[in-house]
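Hi L., both proteins are below.
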Amino acid sequence: MKDKSNKKFWDRVSLIYTFFMKSHTQAYDEISKIISKYLDKNMTVLEIACGTGQLSSLLADKVASWNATDFSEKMISQSKKQSTIKNISFSVEDATNLSYKENSFDAVLIANALHIMPDPDLALAEIYRVLKPNGLLFAPTFIYEDNAKVPTIKLFFMNRLGYRTYNKWTSNTFTNFIKENKFNVVEQSIIKDGLLFESMLVGKKPHN
């Protein structure tokens, strides 16, 4: 990933991130319920940008193996400390240059990360590569609908610490972005998350 400014931000906030994410518990519960419909005990799943494991802890025991990754070494360190689920493995990975072979996973989860990546199309290309044919993409992502109230003060201080948002999609433009990157859209819904909204999108890699 060319721009590492966001990595520095996530390294800095890794110790408090779990506490910070408690305000998003309801949205994460809704996201996990949607994703759970598509999971089974035979699946191998890759999670990109796992943070400190909020979704990993809710979903990993529903599949055969769960590979939780993040660009931030400190986030992975915190994830390892907090996890008690046996089928999770943790590693540091660059979403735009994954170390896995082609057709390795039944599903890939990338939650609330594409909008803060300078090259999200490269991340989707890598996800497409490591997914098996008919493999599933779970991509809950913050979006900017017309009626969203952006928490400007909160974002001001986050920006001072190094946080960057590179893409401000609406639900429609985000769906189009996923389609432009060769995925079929299986399901898309909007979840209210505090002042913002999330597009809970499920995509599929075509068989051919």
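That was the first. Here is the second:
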Amino acid sequence: MDARAQADAILDAVDKSGRLYRDSIPMIASENIISPLVAKAVNSDLHGRYAEGLPGKRYYQGCDDFDTIENIGIESAKRVFNCQFANIQSISGTVSNMAALKALAKPGDTITAVSTADGGHISHARMGAVGVRGLNVVTYPWDEERMEPDIDAACEIIRQTKPEIALFGQSVFLFPTPLQEIADAAHEVGAKVMYDGAHVLGLIAGGQFQDPLREGADVMTGSSHKTFPGSQGGFMLSNSDDEKFQRKLNNSIFPGTCSSYHLHHVAGKAVALAEFEAFGVDYARDIIANAKALGTALAEEGFDVIAEDRGYTASHQILTRHGGIDSGAGLRAAATLEDAGIITNMNMLPGDTKAMTGPSGLRLGVPELTRVGMGTDEMKDVARFFARALIAAEDPASVKKDVADFKSNYQTVKYCFEEGPAYPNLD
């Protein structure tokens, strides 16, 4: 394959990926789409520019206009998240976590966190950012029925280990963390409390989930492209007004973990913050309503939906079980659904130990479906497609055709200043 053919093959694959998601029901809980105005900011000359430092204190010339962008974005983030400090430079949620770990602990220190088996993110583990920073990690005992850390046991672990950081937040995140009581235990032993809100940051900003910065978190990190529907990137937030602490947080981003911090994504993030100020409460409320409706509809279709006693979810996510521990039933279910035009991910459930071959569950998210205008009635339609593919075992090709017909009615980005195509440039 010559060089031009390679480029053509790549662009063809890009186009095919866009068509796949346009014609499918996308339910990856960590994904979302951007608005036309955010896309305009991202697809700009800022793509190739640098602005190391902070507004007004740059290492390069030519940054006056970007200073304007970043200053507006910072002030908007402070309003959206009701906090005293906001850094919007980070290029991802994981990089935000790496920066916070750098700011709050030194190599060899101990932190406490949710284990990956119980839904913690890989950046909270030795395999990820925690290991990169050279930290020791002790995981919280887990309450499987409530799908949250066991409060009393977690407090006891913190008091025994006296960590530098008590880290909370998950990748599988159904319900608010019982943060206040555990944070009090952490502060008793001098630990800083860090809350990774990557998945639920939009729900928090919309006032629909919990309020970590007023429940004991010293620092909150998060992604800007999940339930918060912006360009890819991250946030670091705090309610501390201590200037020395704020400088430490800023320095942990630059020069600590970022050099170029992708100015086009920062600009997109700033536009998304402005749109969130106008539409975020409605978006967050509708996401949660849709997730709850989906959980109920899936259960009515005969699926085993986790946390029935708690109403299935209080977030954007639903978990379903498709077989016994380490059965791999989640892997097989995800593959069947993809053949039927429904994009999901397999997920370990409590008890599973084999991340690639053994997961018994699926993690389902509704941010993108909500963003294109689906409501609680449409969640019943989605659940019926699931049942046709996985319970009735219909021909996936037949289900996929009906999925594409159904999705054709939901092709416009909502909750933004200028509505437009959700999957552009595919004509």
